[in-house]
Specification:
Shape: elongated
Structural class: alpha+beta
Number of helices: 14
Strand order of the largest sheet: 5-6-13-8-10-9
Number of strands: 15
């Protein structure tokens, strides 16, 4: 039989029982759609996390304080291996070539009052003068505080856009005074709206010199023990191509300042790329797991195809006998039924792709989670559907080709 005749016969057989054919393809449709949707959700989550990490600032190096056997690093008078202190940030800014900005952060939670308006549990972020540059935040009105304000412990603050609206409404915040805890701070600037980054709302915070937070908003007993220790120093690199050189400079500088070797360093250094790579490896493993789980539906669909094709062989035994008597070879019979199986799986795969796109769009719209359709998930799932059709269709097709023509003609 010619290829066109085999294909025509297969299409006629599939169209003859449309409902049964559709139900047979349902497992393939669900399997392909599930693979596309699951992988899309995982890829969307991965892209969202990467964007959130990048939105915290570009070309960042994270220098974090390590823990020692004696407790948290960074205590004054804690020996040569004392962890990170505020002066380390200053040294990095002044002595490391290629650094665009250095930021240290210290947070507190306080009640903020302005006239009759009271906002509870506001995050007070103590930072340094390079914060807007390092964190990619823009000043909408007024100005940000300077290094001189940090050194002099000037009681000034910059507010996030949402908190500014909550406290001042339509009034101009610049020049106003708010009471944070029991301390008065003068508002000198307002940030542009940044939105949520992960679970952090940068627009509902007050930003003030870190020296002010240490002296007015930190637990005094804790501050006396900890001194000016810091847990993290954020370093913005001016030229990404010099990243490795800058990391080396920072490592050698801090090792010298702390009188430690690099092997026994009381600090660690990571980059945004390191964090993104780590989370990508995690989500990739999760995505692979989801893909395999969804792929089980394809196997179930394949079993459905084999079951229906076996039923079809039984129902069409007399037809097979007639074809054999007019010259059809076992190979022709095998290809006829195998083509029907492949046609069912390919059609189911195409419908599954459409269902996958639609399902991903609906999931993003109603659930609110971002989905990213990966081309490889489409290719992989469609190829798998085709292979399922070949694998599970071969046995019924082979069984049909082995029927004895005389017995087939006698079948009722």
């Amino acid at each position: 039989m010619r290829v066109t005749e085999i294909l025509r016969t297969a299409i006629e057989a599939v169209n003859k029982n449309k409902v049964r054919s559709l139900l047979t393809m349902l497992g393939i449709i669900i399997g392909v759609a599930a693979v596309i949707i699951m992988v899309g959700i995982s890829a969307g989550t991965e892209a969202t996390i990467a964007e959130q990490i990048t939105s915290l600032g570009s070309n960042l190096v994270y220098v974090s304080s390590s823990f020692t056997m004696g407790g948290v690093s960074g205590m004054r008078g804690g020996g040569s291996s004392g962890g990170l202190v505020f002066e380390d940030a200053t040294a990095i800014s002044e002595e490391v070539n290629g650094v665009a900005g250095v930021v240290v952060e210290q947070t507190s939670s306080q009640t903020v009052k302005y006239e009759d308006v009271v906002v509870d549990e506001v995050t007070i972020m103590g930072t340094t003068a390079d914060f807007p540059s390092v964190r990619d935040m823009e000043i909408a009105a007024g100005r940000y505080y300077t290094d001189e304000d940090v050194d002099r412990e000037t009681k000034v603050a910059v507010v996030g856009a949402t908190l500014a609206e909550s406290l001042f409404g339509d009034a101009d915040p610049i020049g106003q005074t708010v009471i944070v805890g029991t301390t008065r701070l003068a508002i000198i600037g307002v940030f542009e709206q940044k939105g949520l980054v992960g679970t952090t709302d940068y627009d509902s915070r007050i930003y003030t010199p870190i020296s002010v937070v240490w002296n007015y908003f930190s637990n005094q007993e804790f501050a006396r023990v900890m001194g000016d220790s810091v847990r993290m120093i954020y370093v913005e690199v001016a030229n990404p191509e010099e990243l490795d050189s800058i990391i080396t400079q920072i490592s050698l500088l801090l090792a010298k300042r702390h009188d430690v070797t690099l092997d026994d360093a009381d600090f660690s250094i990571t980059t945004q790329d390191d964090i993104i790579t780590t989370q990508e490896s995690t989500t990739e493993a999760f995505r692979t797991l989801l893909g395999w789980v969804a792929g089980v539906s394809l196997v179930v669909g394949g079993i459905g195809i084999m079951n229906i094709m076996l039923v079809s062989v039984t129902e069409r035994t007399r037809e097979i006998g007639i074809r054999q008597t007019v010259g059809a070879t076992p190979s022709d019979i095998r290809w006829q039924f195998l083509t029907e199986s492949i046609l069912l799986s390919i059609t189911g795969g195409l419908l599954g792709i459409l269902a996958g796109f639609s399902g991903a769009a609906l999931f993003e719209h109603f659930v609110g989670m971002r989905t990213v359709i990966l081309p490889e998930s489409i290719i992989l799932s469609f190829a798998a559907a085709t292979l399922v059709g070949i694998f599970f269709g071969y046995y019924p097709a082979s069984k049909a080709s082995q029927l004895d023509p005389i017995d087939a003609l006698r079948h009722e």
